[in-house]
Specification:
With 642 residues, the protein is an alpha/beta fold. It has 25 helices and 23 strands.
């Protein structure tokens, strides 16, 4: 159920967060000083003594489970401070302690990129781990989970907390041992999938009447306490906007394998043939903002009349849906933008990150129609065995908190959907990042020429250049143009790997040119090479606006970290996807304005932002409808079994 709050309370909360230092305003500075003082008192302890002290504190905390006080938090933070200092070799600064306190209060800490969020997560993890509450630290991808766990596991063990890493596709016994640990690192989706797997296993093993176990779960009387995923105490979510906003448009689904059928394959091919004969406006309508196609009455009649031979048989849905899916595959889904053909299979591309998602499939035959379109081997449609939205899953935890560099734009959605406040943590050092005026172009070709010229110019100065691309297609287009211009570069797009993160980490070296999908290596610290700061730091060129200002800010946050110098600039054309979908009037206007070599002199930033607001509203609506449908489905099942 969507959490709602009194309007007056919400207005007061929103007003309190308008100042950038609002995060520090709700934290008592005296508590930060006490953390430092108590940590200083632990410096003379040996490792054995520190472990014993942590064990003593844990025993006291667990003897009083109902007590959760500021004094306990200060004591746990002091232990964490000293443990991190010894193992990692870094001393926490005030802003990291502030962030940790916000997390312990069940909030979202918006902390600028490069400010040390990884260590911040250790503070609440140790606090709640010492209390004996199961702590799940969820990350957007497996690389970050493994990296952070490897870094902090010695700290946790030094402080009497067991820690485990949740690996994908590991055997059940291994996962059972991991979930028994005080602190567990893993991806947000793997935690959710394990919950679904456990529910399926529980239903299959139930000895009661058919559906009795599931009825008990739906009534709220059971939470699979016998299973290895039963303990859901505290969830600390890294890059919480990515996990709970960007990825929340797609539910977590476990599917059973389908069996390819030649007759089914002929249905998809027939749907494509029919779709190619239909005409826009008279036979079908395209809603580009909703990214959907719908047949008109005339189109539905023609779709039946134009089938070759007998009427289609073996339909799993109405024939009109097959044709509409074929139209979507032909008109709205683009290869190397929405999907790739990889190793003979259709692989979806995450629109928010540009990464490949081999574990995702389109439903209602769309995936199979794309296989026919790309002349690939036909696969059977998957049967849904279990599903849950990320919204419903994460609200099962007793406490939820998280951190990211960009949350304020989505603060109202976090508040209404998850009951989470957002507070901005102040910067450790003054921001030196410079914003250069956005350049606007009447067409994509003019934009690419100007972008390549600017990249070559900056590269000649020795400054590193990072180019942010929204799609794989755009990144490869730019790569070919840089080849022609003989500018050396590193191209990163697709699946997140440790190698990718290492390359992104080197993007700040002198003379480096790196093309990456927007979120490549997110969470990786980009340090400037020797002498780079003196020549202006790293420069970011974004070759296309995203559908959300928040995602643009994520990209911008790759430069000017921790007070480093840096700069960024956007290149926008009338042919960009955002404008074609949500700013068609603006795109037409751009093509009609006076130009010099295809470049416009007008500043259209406000109009672009208006298009982004429409795109953000469409995304919120999609997530709201998904949550409502999930809630309706659950309530309907509950009513049936009462």
């Amino acid at each position: 159920m969507t959490t709602t709050f009194p309007r007056r309370t919400a207005q007061k909360w929103l007003a309190s967060l308008r100042h950038p230092s609002a995060g520090s305003a709700i934290i008592d500075p005296a508590r930060i000083e006490r953390v430092r003082q108590q940590a200083a008192g632990l410096r003379n302890h040996s490792d054995t003594q520190l472990t014993a002290e942590a064990g003593r504190v844990a025993a006291v905390f667990r003897a009083q489970p109902a007590v959760c006080s500021a004094e306990q938090m200060i004591e746990a933070f002091a232990l964490a401070y000293e443990g991190i200092r010894r193992v990692v070799g870094l001393e926490l600064y005030n802003e990291q302690i502030i962030s940790g306190m916000l997390l312990c209060r069940g909030m979202i800490a918006e902390m600028a990129t490069g400010e040390g969020k990884t260590l911040c997560a250790a503070l609440p993890a140790i606090f709640y781990g010492l209390r004996g509450q199961s702590v799940h630290v969820a990350t957007p991808n497996a690389y970050l989970a493994e990296r952070d766990c490897k870094l902090l596991a010695p700290v946790y063990r030094l402080l009497s907390c067991s820690v485990g890493l949740l690996k994908e596709n590991s055997p059940e016994e291994e996962k059972r041992a991991v979930y028994a640990c005080d602190i567990v690192y893993g991806t947000g989706y793997e935690f959710g999938f394990d919950y679904l797997r456990e529910q399926l296993a529980g239903i299959a093993q139930s000895r009661g009447t058919l559906g009795s176990h599931y009825r008990e779960v739906l009534r709220g009387g059971g939470r699979s306490e016998h299973g290895f995923h039963a303990r859901r105490g505290v969830a600390i979510i890294d890059e919480i906007d990515s996990v709970m906003i960007d990825e929340a448009c797609i539910p977590l689904i476990i599917s059973g394998a389908g069996s390819p059928d030649k007759e089914d394959a002929s249905l998809y091919a027939e749907a494509l043939k029919v779709a190619k004969r239909l005409r826009e406006d008279s036979d079908y309508l395209i809603d580009r903002e909703a990214h959907s196609v719908s047949l008109t009455r005339s189109g539905k009649l023609k779709s039946h009349e134009q089938t070759s031979g007998q009427s289609p048989c073996r339909l799993q849905r109405s024939w009109s849906v097959y044709v509409e899916q074929a139209l979507q595959a032909l008109l709205l889904l683009t290869r190397d933008v929405d999907y790739v053909a990889d190793d003979g299979k259709i692989v979806l591309v995450d629109g928010a990150t540009g990464r490949l998602c081999p574990d995702r499939n389109w439903s209602e035959g769309l995936h199979q129609i794309l296989e026919v379109k790309e002349n690939l081997e036909h696969s059977g449609e998957l049967r849904t065995a279990a599903r849950i939205t990320r919204q419903r899953y994460f609200r099962m935890y007793d406490m939820l908190c998280g951190m990211t560099g960009t949350a304020m734009e989505s603060r109202w959605e976090f508040w209404r959907t998850y009951g989470l406040h957002v507070a901005t943590v102040p910067l450790r050092r003054p921001l030196q990042r410079k914003r250069l005026p956005t350049r606007f172009f009447a067409d994509a070709a003019s934009k690419w020429r100007a972008a390549v010229a600017e990249i070559a110019r900056i590269h000649a100065t020795g400054r590193p250049v990072l180019i942010g691309s929204r799609t794989i297609e755009n990144s490869e287009t730019l790569a070919k143009l840089l080849d022609d211009a003989r500018v050396p570069y590193q191209l990163l797009n697709g699946k997140q790997t440790a190698d990718e993160a290492e390359i992104v980490a080197r993007a700040g070296q002198r003379g480096a040119v790196t093309i990456a999908t927007n979120m490549a290596g997110r969470g990786t610290d980009i340090k400037l090479g020797h002498g780079v700061a003196e020549i202006g730091g790293m420069h970011l060129i974004a070759v296309e606006p995203n559908e959300s200002l928040r995602v643009d800010r994520q990209l911008i946050g790759r430069v000017g970290r921790q007070g480093d110098p840096g700069s960024y600039q956007f290149f926008i054309s009338a042919d960009d996807a955002l404008l074609l979908r949500f700013g068609q009037r603006l795109a037409l206007r751009m093509k009609s304005l006076p130009q010099v070599g295809g470049e416009l002199s007008a500043d259209l930033s406000r109009s672009v932002r208006a298009a982004q607001r429409r795109a953000e509203a469409a995304g919120r609506k999609q997530r709201r409808l998904l949550t409502a449908a999930d809630q309706w489905r659950t309530n309907d099942l509950v009513n049936l079994v009462k």
